[in-house]
Specification:
The structure holds 2 protein chains of 2 kinds. Chain A is α+β, with helices and mostly antiparallel strands. About 4% of the residues of chain A have low confidence. The two termini of chain A are 30 Å apart. In chain A, strands 2-3-1-4 form a 4-stranded antiparallel β-sheet. The radius of gyration of chain B is 21 Å and the shape is globular. Chain B has 2 domains: 170 residues, Anaerobic Ribonucleotide-triphosphate Reductase Large Chain (Alpha-Beta Barrel), CATH 3.20.70.20; 223 residues, Anaerobic Ribonucleotide-triphosphate Reductase Large Chain. Chain B starts with a helix and ends in a 9-residue tail after the last strand. By secondary structure, chain B is α/β, with parallel strands linked by helices. In chain B, the strands form 2 sheets. In chain B, strands 1, 2, 3, 4, 5, 6, 7, 8, 9, 10 and 13 form an 11-stranded mixed β-sheet that branches. Chain B has a two-stranded antiparallel sheet with strand order 11-12. In chain B, 43% of the residues lie in helices and 17% in strands. In chain B, helix 2 runs parallel beside helix 4, helix 4 packs across helix 5 and helix 7 runs parallel beside helix 9. Classes of the chains: A alpha+beta, B alpha/beta. Chains A and B meet through strand 2, strand 3, helix 4, strand 4 and helix 5 of A and helix 1, helix 3 and helix 8 of B.
């Protein structure tokens, strides 16, 4: 069950009231966690700011063998799901755009970005990873 | 694929090649609850409050940057105009408060903190008088504090006594910071119709009607607009306006997204998006280049004002459609020192102070980062401020003057600050006297426009 922000806030205020003078950040956190779990909700403080787990990967550079393999292997190792892929060769240039879902990955976006930077350097191409929201906000009303 | 190839490449091109960035995420913090009879307690309260809200500001903004692949150039803080909560302070105490702000900014790791300000368009309290007198000292003894004073508004008219005071303050600030090309003046803005939610430092402050804490965003991207205009080629002006609007629409949407995410991460409310085309000294990041791409030979040619008016208006229209939280200045900034194209136009003798003044009637701010000879009379500076404020109050728009009477410098010299402030050639100022007019003092009454009720 997913609790709304409003509900979590209400629980937090109740917890603060209950603890009174003894309210330290840790004590409040602990009490809120218990309360949320007893209501059957998920208690997670991190990783909930991403509206969808999808990111767009764009890569381009001079074409040579092994680019797609290199990129996809790293994504596979990080447990990223490739949902869509579009690839074109323009003259000597190679471009590839992927829509990937990273919600099941053990790594967060920043770590995957760092991983990709290494691969980009190795393969002498450019790789950009950006959250899908940017594209949605810019190109969809 | 949910997005077309072209759409994705367009976004990548904007963020990676054309310098599209979020110019600033500015956290506005109210200091209205920080006054105490004991100045030491006051200072501690100010420091603690800024740290409490701002401690994570830089770190969280950086996280959003990497998540969306859009860079945020500046992370800054604005506070309640200092003269309001601390009206009971005297000159020395105000300087101490400025030092406290400087220290807090340093601790947080930001380059500027703004709001060492007073709003005196109709008259001034004793505290406001003390604060204004303290500005040269505060700006010369701190590195990160920015100051602004509002001397006129459509509703109140122009407070000429305040204008005269400010021209002396500017001169003294220039002298007190003469070792660094009078840099104090680059952090001091004189406003008419100042806005309360402007995220752009140096003129930012956290207005009195603002909430406890808020996050405002300033977006820029002259490079993106320039490229779009160049690509459009030979189209008529209506089509050109359409192209500018489409481009601005997209960057505003991205800006609002980033602002909301930074606010969300900080756990504070999101305020406004200010879509202002603000240039930087980087090549291609120039308003002057946009005007030239629109078709004038150089900035200063007849037609420049019309081109700028159209640009400014298109920016506003697109912003309004893209976001329901448009605020601040929202338009095109035309600072001289921060725009390579403007600098070149001044050096080539194509752009004079008078033409620049005309352009400010249709841009979003005013005479910005103008360096003039160090021996320019205070009454002449007062005249320049009064002219600019008159454009503001009559047209019901914000105007500002950020002028640097560079100490010991004359025409042909430069002031050079490096970084975002850039470098400015000393411009020629008419030496005809304004003393008789500005010396009358008093207040220019509120214009016809004020009687709207």
């Amino acid at each position: 069950m997913k609790l709304s922000e409003e509900e979590v806030r209400k629980i937090t205020f109740e917890a603060i009231g209950e603890l009174g003078d003894k309210a330290t950040p840790e004590a409040v956190k602990e009490l809120v966690r218990k309360q949320v779990e007893s209501m059957g909700g998920d208690y997670k403080l991190e990783k909930n700011d991403v509206s969808s787990g999808r990111v767009i990967l764009t890569s381009f550079g001079l074409n040579h063998p092994g680019i797609v393999a290199g990129v996809t292997k790293a994504l596979g190792d990080a447990n990223c799901d490739i949902q869509d892929l579009s690839q074109k060769i323009l003259g000597d240039f190679f471009t590839m755009i992927m829509v990937i879902d990273i919600s099941a990955s053990q790594k967060d976006l920043k770590e995957i970005q760092e991983e990709m930077n290494k691969i980009a350097e190795l393969l002498k191409i450019k790789i950009y990873l950006q959250h899908e929201d940017v594209f949605r906000y810019m190109h969809r009303i | 694929m949910p997005y077309e190839f072209g759409e994705i490449l367009e976004t990548i091109r904007m963020t990676e090649i054309e310098h599209f960035d979020i110019r600033t995420v500015t956290m506005g913090i109210s200091l209205r609850d920080c006054h105490d009879r004991n100045i030491e307690v006051t200072k501690q309260k100010i420091y603690d409050k800024i740290l409490r809200y701002g401690k994570q500001h830089v770190k969280l903004a950086k996280e959003v940057e990497s998540q969306y692949g859009i860079s945020i150039a500046n992370k800054r803080i604005s506070v309640t105009p200092i003269s309001i909560p601390f009206d009971a302070c005297n000159l020395e105490e105000f300087i101490e408060i400025a030092r406290t702000l400087d220290k807090a900014a340093e601790e947080i790791g930001i380059d500027y903190i703004a709001g060492y300000s007073a709003l005196v368009q109709k008259g001034m309290t004793n505290g406001e008088r003390e604060l204004i007198k303290s500005i040269p000292f505060a700006l010369s003894q701190t590195k990160r504090v920015c100051s602004s004073v509002n001397i006129g508004s459509t509703k109140a008219g122009i407070n000429m006594d305040a204008v005269n005071m400010m021209s002396e303050v500017i001169k003294l600030t220039a002298e007190k910071t003469k070792e660094n090309d009078s840099i104090g003046c680059a952090k001091l803005v004189v406003f008419a119709n100042a806005v309360e939610d402007n995220p752009f430092v140096a003129g930012a402050f956290h207005g009195v009607s603002e909430p406890e804490i808020v996050l405002n965003v300033g977006i820029s991207g002259p490079g993106v607009v320039l490229e779009a205009i160049r690509e459009a080629g030979n189209v008529d002006l209506q089509q050109l306006s359409e192209i500018i609007k489409k481009t601005i629409f997209k960057i505003t949407r991205a800006g609002e997204l980033i602002g909301r995410k930074v606010a969300e991460k900080n756990g504070i409310p999101f305020g406004i998006v200010d879509i202002s085309l603000a240039p930087t000294p980087a090549e291609g990041d120039s308003i002057a280049d946009i005007l030239k791409a629109m078709g004038v030979e150089d900035v200063g040619a007849p037609g420049t004002t019309a081109a700028l008016a159209m640009l400014n208006d298109s920016v506003k229209k697109a912003g309004l459609m893209a976001s329901s939280s448009v605020g601040g200045m929202s338009g095109a900034f035309i600072p001289v020192s921060e725009d390579m194209g403007m600098i070149r136009a001044v050096q080539a003798g194509n752009l004079s102070l008078e033409k620049l003044e005309a352009m400010t009637a249709v841009c979003s701010v005013g005479l910005d980062m103008i360096a003039v000879p160090g021996d320019t009379a205070a009454t002449t500076i007062a005249g320049i401020i009064a002219d600019e404020a008159a454009i503001g109050i009559i047209n019901d728009k914000t105007t500002a003057v950020r002028i640097i009477p560079a100490y010991g410098k004359k025409i042909g010299d430069f002031v050079d600050y490096g970084g975002l402030l850039g470098k400015a050639p000393i411009m020629e100022v008419r030496t005809l006297s304004s003393a008789g007019f500005v010396g009358r003092g008093g207040r220019i009454p509120a214009p016809m426009r004020s009687l709207t009720n």
